[in-house]
Amino acid sequence: MSIRQNIEQVKQEILKFKNYYKKDQNIELLAVSKTKPFSDIVEAYNCGQRSFGESYAQEACEKVELSREYKLNDIIWYFIGPIQSNKTRMIAEHFDWVLSCDRKKILQRLNDQRPYHMGKLNICLQINISNEQQKSGISVQEVKELAEYVSNNLPNLCLRGLMAVALDTTDLCILEDEFSQMHQLFCDLKDNYSNIDTLSLGMTQDMETAIKCGTTMVRIGTKIFGARNYN
Ligand SMILES: *Cc1c(COP(=O)(O)O)cnc(C)c1O
């Protein structure tokens, strides 16, 4: 299967599930291109794909720079991986969005290092909804405080919503429970802040349940670009 065929298929599935669960929510498709060559991004771009997600700062920034060289200037770049403090500057200087924010210190640095001419950096708070020790993200209890901190203290960031990676399981009850909690948190946040419009849930394995529970942005890697090879 080609990248073109994969994208078509993913889009059709999104539409099918959206209609099935009667959601009137628009769902953005974020193509997760981490570890994949720049030529794959160009191929997806030529199929009309404009939103891309990357996880590794160095690799990611090289791809962003290539996209500028190739004048693919309407790509919207999303950083979705864990963030070390020595990488915040390059992320602030290359990305449009950061979905994986989970620490005050990192948020503060992204705010301070955001170049003025790029406008505000869009951010989502990452929630560790499955409460796994090795996983990034804040707890459900910390959302309120961190959201307040961003909106009161960090003028170069725009808080847009929440992101989570569910437990790696095929148990639909667990997935639905986690995603429903996320949806509730998202609604609460929306009631308290302007500009909240993004609930990023769902990957290749759990896209259907995410759509059922009201995701506004699925993050799809494997189903578009094939399995990743970590060598
Ligand atoms: C890699 C990654 C994805 C894509 O996962 P697939 O299972 O390949 O679709 C989505 N979200 C995050 C945060 C990721 O790191």
In short:
The chain contains nine helices and eight strands. It is 42% helix and 17% strand.
Note down, in words, how this protein is organized:
The two termini are 23 Å apart. An 8-stranded parallel β-sheet has the order 7-6-5-4-3-2-1-8. It contains 9 helices and 8 strands. It is globular, with a radius of gyration of 17 Å. The chain has 231 residues and is α/β, with parallel strands linked by helices. It has helices at 3-20, 38-45, 57-69, 88-94, 104-113, 143-153, 172-192, 207-212, 222-225; strands at 28-32, 51-54, 76-79, 97-101, 121-127, 157-164, 198-200, 217-220.
Notable features of this structure?
single chain; 231 residues; alpha/beta; eight-stranded parallel beta sheet; 9 helices; 42% helix; binds pyridoxal-5'-phosphate
Q: Which bin fits the share of residues in helices?
A: 40-55%
User: Could you tell me the number of beta strands?
Assistant: 8
Number of H/I helices: 9
Q: How large is the share of residues in beta strands?
A: 15-25%
Give the CA-CA distance, first to last residue: 23 Å
Which ions and ligands are bound to the chains?
A: pyridoxal-5'-phosphate
Oligomer classification: single chain
Topology as a string of helices (H) and strands (E): HEHEHEHEHEHEHEHEH
Largest sheet: 8 strands, parallel
Mean pLDDT: 97
Query: Any idea what the shape is?
Result: globular
Strand order of the largest sheet: 7-6-5-4-3-2-1-8
Our Rg estimate from Cα atoms comes to: 17 Å
Structural class estimated from helices and strands: alpha/beta
**Regions with little confidence, pLDDT below 50 for 5+ residues:** none
